[in-house]
Automatic annotation (TrEMBL):
Gene3D superfamilies, A to Z: 1.10.530.10, Bacterial muramidase
A Pfam cross-reference name: SLT_2
Listed GO biological process terms: peptidoglycan catabolic process
Protein known as: Lytic murein transglycosylase
Keywords, in A-Z order: Membrane, Transmembrane, Transmembrane helix
Domain Transglycosylase SLT positions: 64-268
Ranges annotated as spanning the membrane: 35-55
GO-annotated molecular function: peptidoglycan lytic transglycosylase activity
Amino acid sequence: MFATAAIRPKQNTLSGRFWHSDPVLGDGFDRMKKILLAGLIATGFMTATPALAALQCGNDSSGFARWVEEFKRVAPSNGVNPSVVEKAFSSVSYNRPTISADRGQKSFKLSFDDFMKKRGGAAIISRGKGMKSGNASLFAQIERRFGVPAGPIIAIWGMETGFGSFMGDQHTLSAVATLAYDCRRSAYFTEQLYAALELVGRGDLSVTARGAAHGEIGQTQFLPLNVVRYGADGDGDGHIDMVRSRADALASTANFLKGHGWRAGAGYQPGQPNFVAIQGWNAATVYQQAIAYMGAQIDGQ
């Protein structure tokens, strides 16, 4: 998988991407929690918190079925259509691979050169240049709309899923529901679960969708609440399809960066104004540096 568990957590507001008390995060954890809180207030998801506070979390599968029934009972009182709840949970089960991936997260520090080798940076740059030229009109449209050039978007696309070649194999709703039930970060992933239900309700997430182990969706691996907040319709069909629509996934990625302070025309290397937006994508410094470097190479800077 291109977005390895060792590099996560990512998307430091809500895609990217979640947090835990890992040394790799540093001060970004507290800073991004404030951004998440503001987003939840803005989208109305904070209404879910009081009613869900009483749900009994668990650290194994034994209480999951009971938790699901209780969640299904309280979700409509938090604004979710009961039919959407039933539809979404029709194929949800406790997802052991998600828990295994979550428990297996480890911080590590690689040099920039080692990281680039490990993640196939040279191949991403080479193929990324072809992606830029082959989708020139799309990237021009995205830059006009969001002010973000092709390079960093393509670098993220390549880093996350190998340009859409592997977007994950875990049932998305099961992954998010499992982590909402799990005691370690129940509140955070409960908010993600409500966002996933919103996407199901508006037809932007299939109940059979598969993605990464923590519920990340699509070609650039957005967590559900990031899709709600930053998802952009890039192909004009009225929906945001992060899996099948290249235009939607890339436009949403640009909108995420714009939402994290991207300024049209400014530089995005370390120390330049737009590097802060790249920092919003992933909390690992070496990951940020790689996006900036590969983006510049793809953009011919």
